[in-house]
Amino acid sequence: MASPFHNKLPSPKQAVRRRARLDRLLDPDLLKALAEPTRARLLSCLLKCGRPCSVSEVAECCSIDFSMVARHLATMARARLLTASKEGRTVWYTANGPALADQFRELADAIDELSGGTCCNESGCAC
Asked: Which distant-in-sequence residues (6+ apart) come within 8 Å of 7 by Cβ?
Protein backbone atom coordinates (compact mmCIF):
# COMPACT_ATOMS: atom_id res chain seq x y z
CA MET A 1 0.00 0.00 0.00
CA ALA A 2 1.30 3.45 -0.91
CA SER A 3 2.09 5.93 1.83
CA PRO A 4 -0.50 8.69 2.43
CA PHE A 5 1.71 11.35 0.82
CA HIS A 6 2.84 9.13 -2.10
CA ASN A 7 0.96 11.27 -4.63
CA LYS A 8 2.85 14.38 -3.46
CA LEU A 9 6.27 12.85 -4.15
CA PRO A 10 7.79 13.31 -7.61
CA SER A 11 7.46 10.42 -10.02
CA PRO A 12 10.64 8.92 -11.52
CA LYS A 13 9.81 10.75 -14.75
CA GLN A 14 9.64 14.07 -12.86
CA ALA A 15 12.74 13.27 -10.77
CA VAL A 16 14.93 12.58 -13.80
CA ARG A 17 14.22 16.11 -15.08
CA ARG A 18 15.13 17.65 -11.73
CA ARG A 19 18.65 19.10 -11.78
CA ALA A 20 20.72 18.25 -8.74
CA ARG A 21 24.35 18.49 -7.70
CA LEU A 22 24.23 14.71 -7.37
CA ASP A 23 24.02 14.36 -11.18
CA ARG A 24 27.48 15.88 -11.54
CA LEU A 25 29.01 14.02 -8.60
CA LEU A 26 27.85 10.48 -9.37
CA ASP A 27 30.71 9.87 -11.78
CA PRO A 28 30.45 6.42 -13.43
CA ASP A 29 34.23 6.34 -14.02
CA LEU A 30 34.88 6.89 -10.32
CA LEU A 31 32.41 4.21 -9.25
CA LYS A 32 33.72 1.76 -11.87
CA ALA A 33 37.29 2.39 -10.74
CA LEU A 34 36.41 1.61 -7.14
CA ALA A 35 34.20 -1.39 -7.91
CA GLU A 36 37.01 -3.72 -8.95
CA PRO A 37 38.62 -5.43 -5.91
CA THR A 38 42.18 -5.30 -7.28
CA ARG A 39 41.90 -1.55 -7.93
CA ALA A 40 40.52 -1.01 -4.44
CA ARG A 41 43.51 -2.90 -3.01
CA LEU A 42 45.97 -0.89 -5.13
CA LEU A 43 44.34 2.39 -4.09
CA SER A 44 44.55 1.37 -0.44
CA CYS A 45 48.25 0.55 -0.87
CA LEU A 46 48.98 3.95 -2.45
CA LEU A 47 46.97 5.83 0.18
CA LYS A 48 48.82 4.05 3.00
CA CYS A 49 52.20 4.59 1.34
CA GLY A 50 51.64 8.35 1.11
CA ARG A 51 54.27 9.00 -1.57
CA PRO A 52 54.56 8.59 -5.34
CA CYS A 53 55.13 4.95 -6.28
CA SER A 54 56.25 3.46 -9.55
CA VAL A 55 54.22 0.76 -11.27
CA SER A 56 57.06 -1.68 -10.53
CA GLU A 57 56.96 -0.91 -6.80
CA VAL A 58 53.20 -1.38 -6.61
CA ALA A 59 53.35 -4.60 -8.65
CA GLU A 60 56.07 -6.00 -6.41
CA CYS A 61 54.42 -5.17 -3.10
CA CYS A 62 51.00 -6.42 -4.20
CA SER A 63 52.26 -9.52 -6.04
CA ILE A 64 50.36 -8.64 -9.20
CA ASP A 65 51.65 -8.76 -12.78
CA PHE A 66 53.23 -5.47 -13.90
CA SER A 67 51.00 -5.06 -16.98
CA MET A 68 47.85 -5.67 -14.92
CA VAL A 69 48.94 -3.10 -12.31
CA ALA A 70 49.76 -0.57 -15.04
CA ARG A 71 46.27 -0.93 -16.55
CA HIS A 72 44.54 -0.67 -13.17
CA LEU A 73 46.54 2.40 -12.13
CA ALA A 74 45.86 4.10 -15.47
CA THR A 75 42.11 3.44 -15.03
CA MET A 76 42.22 4.99 -11.56
CA ALA A 77 44.15 8.00 -12.87
CA ARG A 78 41.47 8.58 -15.55
CA ALA A 79 38.87 8.52 -12.76
CA ARG A 80 40.95 11.13 -10.88
CA LEU A 81 41.63 8.78 -7.96
CA LEU A 82 45.36 9.06 -8.65
CA THR A 83 47.72 11.50 -10.27
CA ALA A 84 50.37 10.25 -12.65
CA SER A 85 53.69 11.79 -13.58
CA LYS A 86 56.20 10.37 -15.99
CA GLU A 87 59.97 10.59 -15.59
CA GLY A 88 61.71 8.93 -18.50
CA ARG A 89 60.16 5.48 -18.82
CA THR A 90 58.89 5.40 -15.25
CA VAL A 91 55.34 6.42 -14.35
CA TRP A 92 54.82 7.53 -10.76
CA TYR A 93 51.34 7.34 -9.23
CA THR A 94 50.16 9.25 -6.18
CA ALA A 95 46.88 8.94 -4.30
CA ASN A 96 45.62 12.25 -2.94
CA GLY A 97 43.76 11.15 0.19
CA PRO A 98 42.46 14.58 1.23
CA ALA A 99 41.10 15.28 -2.27
CA LEU A 100 39.44 11.85 -2.39
CA ALA A 101 37.92 12.39 1.06
CA ASP A 102 36.60 15.80 -0.05
CA GLN A 103 35.09 14.22 -3.16
CA PHE A 104 33.25 11.61 -1.07
CA ARG A 105 32.16 14.23 1.46
CA GLU A 106 30.68 16.33 -1.35
CA LEU A 107 28.90 13.26 -2.77
CA ALA A 108 27.53 12.39 0.68
CA ASP A 109 26.32 15.96 1.17
CA ALA A 110 24.55 15.89 -2.22
CA ILE A 111 22.83 12.62 -1.29
CA ASP A 112 21.82 14.09 2.07
CA GLU A 113 20.33 17.13 0.31
CA LEU A 114 17.99 14.87 -1.64
CA SER A 115 17.31 12.09 0.84
CA GLY A 116 17.39 14.33 3.87
CA GLY A 117 13.93 15.55 3.00
CA THR A 118 14.77 19.16 2.22
CA CYS A 119 11.35 19.44 0.60
CA CYS A 120 9.60 16.31 1.86
CA ASN A 121 8.88 15.01 5.35
CA GLU A 122 6.25 12.99 7.23
CA SER A 123 3.65 15.74 6.77
CA GLY A 124 4.09 15.93 3.00
CA CYS A 125 6.07 17.61 0.27
CA ALA A 126 6.54 21.28 -0.44
CA CYS A 127 8.22 20.73 -3.81
From this structure: none
Exposure string of 71-81, with b = 16+ CB inside 10 Å and e = fewer, is: ebbebbbebeb
| Mean per-residue pLDDT, 75-99 | 93
Write out pLDDT tens, residues 35-47: 999 999 999 999 9
State residue 6's pLDDT score: 55
Q: Give domain status of residue 49, yes or no.
A: yes
Residue 125 lies inside a defined structural domain of this protein: no
Does the residue 4 lie in any domain? no
Q: Say if 119 falls within a structural domain.
A: no
Residues spanned by the domain of 47:
21-114
In angstroms, the CA 5 to CA 122 distance is 8
